[in-house]
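[Help] Beginner question about ligand-bound structures

Sorry if this is basic. My supervisor gave me a protein sequence and a SMILES string for calcium ion and asked me to "get the holo structure". I don't really know what that means in practice or what format the answer should be in. Inputs are pasted below exactly as I got them.
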Amino acid sequence: MAIIFAPHGAILAKTPNDPYFQQDLYRQINAESAWDKTTGSHQLVVAVIDTGADIFHPDLNDNIWKNTLEIEGNGQDDDHNGYADDYFGWNFVDDNNNVITAVNNAGDDHDTVSHGTIIAGLIGASGDNGRAGTGINWQVKIMPLRAINNEGTGSERDLVKAIDYAIEKKADIISMSFVTFDYLPAVRDALRRAYDRGIVIVSSAGNEGLSEMADMDRQAVYPICFDQGDKENWIIGVTSVDKNDRPIMAVAWILPRPGKIFSAPSAMLRPTVLRENSAVLGKAILSPLRLWPARRLY
Ligand SMILES: [Ca+2]
Ligand SMILES: [Ca+2]
Ligand SMILES: [Ca+2]
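Answer (accepted):
No worries, everyone starts somewhere. Holo just means with the ligand present. The predicted complex, written as structure tokens, is below.
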């Protein structure tokens, strides 16, 4: 056993032992110094509205939320919330309790289908367990709500149901890593209901570059802009920077707005839970990287 003395004034930051831990990336958002204070909690419930999640992935399984009011697999709606056997969340796309995203179906776009699992891993892949990657939270409860289908689209109806589910089940945070150009009033109202119940709302700024999203004041995208014009910034937006903290999307104009938009590095982001080091870039999957500070604000 080695005894390590820190140089005068240095801080020994907590570093996880997971093989895919990306130290440079996480250091950019000061994750390690945050982890010196906390590495998350199984009391914190994050509803992830996305394509679903591989809840039995070995690096995710410990951090998946369970509906303890529901008896699993008896075909009954034990907690009388309208969803039978919703033990791990709900699949609003297919209207069943299977939230596991199938990544190998013929014709499915792999990146789209695995999106929810990647998001879940960034939020809460088990940290310091010597396997796969490291989530921002080493311990957390992820509530997978499938409202985005395998083509990457979702209906207003399903999104509203998913948000109301998160409210009913007392999620602390709702994470949405998707964008639409359509103003969906029912989704806006549902998110406002969630916010008024104390839920932190986090949304990404999307993947698009200059041509499509040069100025959100002129071309609003949602959910991130649902609070546009409101006195409160009640939706926390997240955009993307490179390793030198320079915006890699054409959204530099929004960065000077304190409290409105956070940024997180994504250019070299690798999915934390995938075994291969596939070079999936993570522009839309960066909102989880700011969940911990979001909780701090809350
Ligand atoms: Ca139920
Ligand atoms: Ca049941
Ligand atoms: Ca791990």
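A couple of things worth pointing out: DSSP finds eight helices and seven strands in the chain. The radius of gyration is 19 Å. Feel free to follow up in the thread.
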